[in-house]
Specification:
Layout: E1 15-19, H1 24-36, E2 47-53, E3 59-67, E4 70-76, E5 82-88
């Protein structure tokens, strides 16, 4: 007898996040992200937060914060390719006349 798909229990792989401390590893990751985003944001990131699988330790993504509302998120696939999403948050103020 084959179990119905709704009854099959799959093991979920947990993830964890960590903040990359300033140093050589931070500089290497910052250079990798800067190359991927084609230097859209000026300077180096203020902080980098990584996400990885608990079991294998494979890095799933990196999020770099450049300034107020300027972030670059890099998702890394199993085959080594990656995708990058840039976000820029700003607000406008409407002045009273």
């Amino acid at each position: 007898m084959v179990a119905k798909p709704s009854r099959v229990h799959r093991r979920r792989v947990g993830t964890y996040r960590w903040k990359v401390a300033p140093g050589d590893q931070f500089d290497e990751l910052a250079a990798l992200i800067d190359k991927a985003i084609a230097h859209v944001f000026e300077g180096s990131p203020r902080e980098i937060i990584g996400t990885a699988e608990r079991v294998s330790g494979r890095i799933l993504g990196l999020k770099a914060t450049y300034g107020a509302g300027q972030t670059a998120t890099m998702r890394i696939r199993k085959d080594g390719s990656y995708s990058v999403a840039l976000s820029l948050r700003f607000s406008t103020k409407k002045g009273a006349k």
